[in-house]
TrEMBL record:
Main location: membrane
PROSITE patterns: G_PROTEIN_RECEP_F1_1 (PS00237), G_PROTEIN_RECEP_F1_2 (PS50262)
Keyword Ligase: no
Function noted in UniProt: Putative odorant or sperm cell receptor.
Protein name: Olfactory receptor
Length: 309
């Protein structure tokens, strides 16, 4: 195992699951199963949306990007985690910074893709006559490009500030991946500027995305309650159910992770909450949009008939 260097750290050791060596093999197969389900589910959803013209709508364009982010998210971290269960859990300094960048980029991007999906539902339900113009292909592309742009800017802010720090003490990260707060605990230089950047960026992302989604659904709810028929209200609510479930899972686990970091003994809870939103949520998103969506199930049925018969 690579030990710390007296002058500077060239590699880090993940200590996230080091105290649970007895269950490394069960955990390996558990996370391997989650990873396989995530990859198969998201690749399948991406394929269905790409192949079927009936799914070439703004809602499924945003879902395509959400599924792509979840796939990249899982592939960026889970293979390394699985490797660490079977051998030395060491990552190079450059590898750690790259992992940090992709983590921040994908998390921030997913937040705003979920905002785009909420806005899409708002226009579809509250402004249906203007939907084809408001949610044109160009507008959808700009919304997604903006989501990735904000994600890239946030990732550059976090990673750029992290590269300015000096690591010369312990190189053991009390986590299973390179996140901002566990890395700041190892810095030999003052992490105050980084903590400020972290608070500002995370606060802005969480505030703007959550407030945008809440406002969108408040307007949607107001519009739905004015629909005279119970069947119409039920149909309108049904188009939002999958997205609301995904939002609750993603923001709930993320908020639990970052809002409890200042509490005593919160490191362990934060670590396990991270497992949920890095390994479980990407798998659940596919199931939610597959099992609750008639269009996706219909497209899947057509594809299976075409392949099997």
């Amino acid at each position: 195992m690579i030990l710390r260097n007296s002058s500077s750290v060239t590699a880090f050791v993940f200590g996230g699951f080091s105290g649970q060596s007895a269950v490394h093999f069960p955990l390996f197969f558990l996370f391997l199963g989650l990873y396989v389900c995530t990859v198969v589910g998201n690749v399948g959803l991406l394929t269905l949306i790409g192949l079927h013209s009936s799914l070439h709508t703004p809602m499924y364009f945003f879902l395509f990007n959400l599924s792509w982010i979840d796939l990249c998210y899982s592939c960026a971290f889970t293979p390394k985690m699985l490797h660490d269960f079977l051998s030395e859990n060491v990552i190079s300094y450059a590898g750690c910074m790259a992992q940090l960048f992709f983590f921040c980029f994908l998390v921030n991007s997913e937040c705003y893709v979920l905002v785009c999906m909420a806005y899409d539902r708002y226009v579809a339900i509250c402004r249906p006559l203007r939907y084809p113009v408001t949610m044109s292909p160009q507008a959808c592309a700009l919304l997604v490009a903006g989501s990735y742009g904000v994600g890239f800017a946030g990732a550059m802010a976090h990673t750029g500030n992290m590269l300015r720090l000096t690591f010369c003490g312990s190189n053991v990260i009390d986590h299973y991946l390179c996140e901002v707060l566990p890395l700041l605990q190892l810095s030999c230089t003052s992490p105050r500027p980084n903590e400020l950047v972290f608070s500002v960026v995370v606060g802005m992302v969480m505030a703007t995305s959550s407030v945008s989604i809440v406002i969108s659904y408040a307007l949607i709810l107001s519009s739905i309650l004015r629909i005279p028929s119970a069947e119409g209200r039920s149909k309108a609510f049904g188009t939002c159910g999958s997205h609301l479930t995904t939002v609750a899972l993603f923001f709930g686990s993320g908020a639990f992770t970052y809002l409890t970091t200042s509490f005593p003994g919160s490191a362990g809870r934060s670590k396990y909450a991270s497992v949920f939103y890095t390994n479980v949520v990407p798998m659940l998103n596919t199931l939610i949009y597959s099992l609750r969506n008639k269009d996706v199930k219909l497209a899947l049925g057509k594809t299976l008939k075409r392949v099997l018969f």
